[in-house]
Amino acid sequence: MAEFTASVFQNEFLSDGATDVHAIVTVTVSGAGQAGQGQGMAAGEIIIVDTSGSMTGENLGAAKHAAAVAIDQILDGTWFAVISGTDTAARAFPYPNARLPMVQMEPGARAAAKQAVASFQPSGGTAMGTWLTLARELFQATPQATQRHAILLTDGKNEHESAQALSQAIYNATGVFQCDARGVGSRWQVDELRQIATALLGTVDLIAKPADMAADFESIIKQSMGRGVASAELRVWAPQGSEVLFVRQVAPTVEDLTTRKTMVNPLTGSYPTGSWGDESRDYHVAVRVASKPVGSEQLAARVQLTVRDEVVASGLVKARWSNDDALTARIDPAVAHYTGQTELASAIQDGLAAKAAGDAATATVKLGRAVQLAAETGNDEATAKLRKVVEIDDANEGTVRLRRDVAKLDEMALDTASTKTTRVRK
Amino acid sequence: MSDAQLHGDAVDPVDPVDPVAEPVIEAVVEPDPEPDAAPAAEPVVEAAPAVPILCPACGTVNDPDAKFCEECGTQLGELVEVSSGPDASEAEAGVEPDQVTSSTSAPRRACVYCGGSIADDGYCELCGKPAQSERDHWQEAPAAWVGGVCDRGIRHEINEDAMALAADPQAGEFAVLVVCDGVSSTPGSDKASLAAARAATAHLAAGRSTDLAEGTSDELAQARWSARMLEAGERASAAIYEAIGELAARTNPPSCTFAAAVIDGPLVVVGGVGDSRVYWIADSGKSRQLTTDDSWSQEMMAHGMSRQQAESAPQAHSITRWLGADSPDEAPHVVPTYPTGAGWILVCSDGLWNYCSDADDLAELVHRVVGMVGSNPVQVSSSLVDWANEQGGQDNITAALARFDSVVPTPAQPA
After folding, report:
1. Which residues contact B144 (CB under 8 A, 6 or more apart)?
2. CATH number corresponding to A43-225
3. B367 in reach of chain A (CB within 8 A)
4. 0.80 exceeded by pTM
5. Where is B199: in which H helix or E strand?
6. Is the minimum CB–CB distance between B386 and chain A shorter than 8 Å?
7. Phi/psi at A199 (nearest 5 deg)?
8. Which of A123, B156, B181, B187 is the most interior residue, by most CB within 10 Å?
């Protein structure tokens, strides 16, 4: 039986006249079990592999191997399918002539699926929107599979459909399934895959070497199969007359959830969080309430995790007005840490965008700020990746020089890792 | 409440003069938003149930006669509206018909600020304010022309103010208003003040039922009510002693102030111990403070210090007399008076008058409030409490009002 806990980190004391309440809420799930094992639950898994002409050679060979490894990780009983993607999408398994849109995993199906993957032939272009659309249709034709996940691999740019078509396909898939997106090599666009992964509650990452692909696929599917809690929602109640300024996931990655809100009732917004395994996620919630007289106390937010509309964990964010500066001046370390990490993510992304646009001055300032924030918040991984893009003169001051001849892969690695955060140092 | 008190040697409390419960007259509780959200306000002696009471909110075991949970302040037992025509036999037997009937399913409480319901986490589902216990804030309206509000204020953790009201339905005929303010340096003062207010109101209200002899002269009525007021002080003191149990043996036993007004139209008799006050708030003309504080600041003013200076001094709230086990002298100062014209009798704690001490200033405030909310005494009281909270709510706040609408015939003013 899964267990849920929510812990709140905040300084509830506000100075006279202050209105904004910030808190970090850590939600932890343990004993989640395996995907699709719950009562009336079944899991669905789709592997989407880019088989366009550009994959020819080492990439496709590695992709075939990785897909086979992934298929091995899919638990028996899980509804699954494999899609080969070019400028159109084709269902590679179940074979195109099969009646069922997806089949349940068992040893025979596993062997047949691996065979189908082994026969992939590279040809044609790249239109990821069509891949997502086919995956959505397969999932929707398989209503038994209630917990749905896909993995999408590409090596190239989305060249054979409009950006609008991709956006539309992503929009249609939102809420139907979760998707982790992976790019191999250096010719794919980080922002394209980030758009997919963000909307579909997944991750985006770079696989620098084709040889690493199999291990990555294995871990993604393992993780997906280990998510025994399907479709949890984060609910944020805020009092009448208040305003929720933002709701962000801040660990393990930064994701702004603010715009994903749907209202459950006039005071409660719901934010989808997808499926959960045994893990912990941190959320930064900011609420603006009307200032109250010194001495007053009020609840500024109830932050809850719900599964099938049942509250499984709840954290209370409070506000107490005081004129004791010793109480009100302190910024909670968790709030400070994640505020820095969030700014780090946008500084890296803004800096790389400015660099790509040829604006060296802005790029230097932004990446310098990123170096400073990474140092302050102890994000060593970000520092290491930043080092490959800039020469650091003084990390504390944030003085850097842009490196010449930076490897494209290093920039992409920095970009994809920008939203990964470190936990608060206890 | 008063921040400190000057202590004399502990004196034994006065024995209750009359151990038999007094009958109740016209005590009506007006429940705020929900019937069971209002506190018990019947000024009667209760029949103790045999078993301790388990708090439905927090599970704390409370004394059999507890009205509010010692731990969380939740009201214990259900409250039923008391009719204005009490059953004499029940009253004589000292049995409260609606006495503690432990409810098994605690109904959802209403938020006193916005009327929303209180969630299991103890905060309002609408405005997010923490649930107030009924002890923290309640109102009473025994008749349309008499009402009051007792409130914790903002800065204090608990409400050590208390009030108890009783009235005839007929405006201006008969009412009792008692406000007691627990001394904050002493734990248990909230219990002391509530017990004192209720016991005094019960005794004063009972005084009327036995003394409706026709042809009573003004002098006789004054003398009788003055004597009764002194007895009420004794009853209040005895009730404190009973309510606080072992705490009476402390060096600083629970104690409280006492301010009472009996309206036996047209006569008004006020009594006071400590620094809670009774004012006459005239609709037009001169308003007056009817009680005299037993306080350091009052003594300073008697010696010529200005009111402003005396009342803003750090020790202004040191009271020189109080009700409680260690009180050197608990006989109320009694003043009979005949208010002229239309106006209000206001009984209040220092949580209100701290922000507006002078009678004319207070009258101006009351007039302004009446102009905004009308002349329902509960609403006016509530607005006065809100106003004091807006000024900072540094202390518990109680305001109780009785409305004199028509000019009553005025006999000769007493000397």
Report:
1. B169, B171, B376, B377
2. 3.40.50.410
3. no
4. no
5. helix B189-210
6. no
7. -70, -35
8. B181
Q: How far is A238 from chain B (nearest CA, A)?
A: 8
**In this structure, are residues B37 and B31 in contact, taking their beta carbons and an 8 Å threshold?**
yes
Q: Which of A238, A242, A296 lies at the smallest CB-CB distance from B154? A: A296
The reply to whether residue B127 touches residue A295, judged by beta carbons under 8 angstroms, is no
Per-residue model confidence as pLDDT tens for chain B (415 residues): 444 444 434 334 434 334 344 433 443 444 344 434 344 444 444 433 345 565 555 555 666 655 555 555 555 543 323 223 333 333 333 333 333 333 334 456 788 778 888 898 889 999 999 887 788 889 999 999 999 999 999 888 789 999 999 999 998 899 999 999 998 767 889 999 999 999 999 999 998 755 455 556 788 889 999 999 999 999 999 999 898 888 888 888 899 999 999 999 889 999 999 999 999 999 998 999 999 999 888 888 888 888 888 888 888 778 889 998 888 788 999 999 998 889 999 999 999 999 999 999 999 999 999 999 999 999 999 999 999 999 988 899 999 999 987 654 545 444 4
B390: nearest CA partner in chain A: A293
Mode of pairing for the β-strands spanning B277-282 and B288-289: antiparallel
- Inter-chain CB pairs, A–B, below 8 Å: 50
Contact B208, B228 (CB under 8 A): no
Parallel, antiparallel or unpaired: strands A13-14 and A310-321 = parallel
Token code pair at residue A280:
């912990």
Instruction: Tell me: ipTM over 0.85.
Output: no
Q: Which residue has the tokens 């994701």?
A: A255
Name every residue in A having a CB less than 8 A away from some CB of B: 237-242, 267, 289, 293-300, 302, 314, 316
For chain A, domain boundaries: 3-33+229-330, 43-225, 334-417
CB B365 within 8 A of CB B17: no
Listed by number, the residues of chain B in 126-155 with a beta carbon closer than 8 Å to a beta carbon of chain A are 126-130, 154-155
Helix/strand/coil percentages in chain B, nearest 5: 25, 20, 50
Assign residue A278 a region (left: φ > 0; alpha: ψ between -120 and 50; beta: otherwise): beta
Kindly give the pairing relationship between strand A255-256 and strand A297-307.
unpaired
d(CA A202, CA A172): 16
A239, A293, A295: residue with CB nearest B128: A239
Q: Which CATH architecture has domain A3-33+229-330?
A: Sandwich (2.60)
Distance CA(B96)–CA(B90), nearest Å, equals 7
Both structure tokens of A214: 């199999």
Helix (H) or strand (E) holding A115: helix A107-118
B114 lies within 8 A of chain A by CB? yes
Residue of A nearest to B394 (CA): A295
Enumerate residues 6+ apart whose C-beta is below 8 A from B40. B29, B67, B75, B77, B79
Helices marked H in B245-314 — which ranges? Answer: 296-302, 307-312
Structure-block tokens of residue A237 = 């109640």
Question: Span B4-20+135-404: which CATH code?
Answer: 3.60.40.10
- The full set of domain ranges for chain B reads 4-20+135-404
- Residues recorded for chain A: 426
Q: At what angle do helices A163-173 and A190-199 cross, to 10 degrees?
A: 20
Q: Provide the token pair at A365.
A: 């300032």
Q: Which residue has the tokens 């804030």?
A: B137
CA distance B69 to chain A (A): 21
The fold of A334-417 is Four Helix Bundle (Hemerythrin (Met), subunit A) (1.20.120)
Nearest CA in chain A to B123: A299
Q: Pick the residue from chain A with its C-alpha nearest to B121.
A: A316
Nearest to A293 among B121, B129, B393 (CB): B393
Instruction: Work out the minimum CA distance from B354 to partner chain A, whole angstroms.
Output: 17
Phi, psi of A244 (to 5 degrees): -80, 115
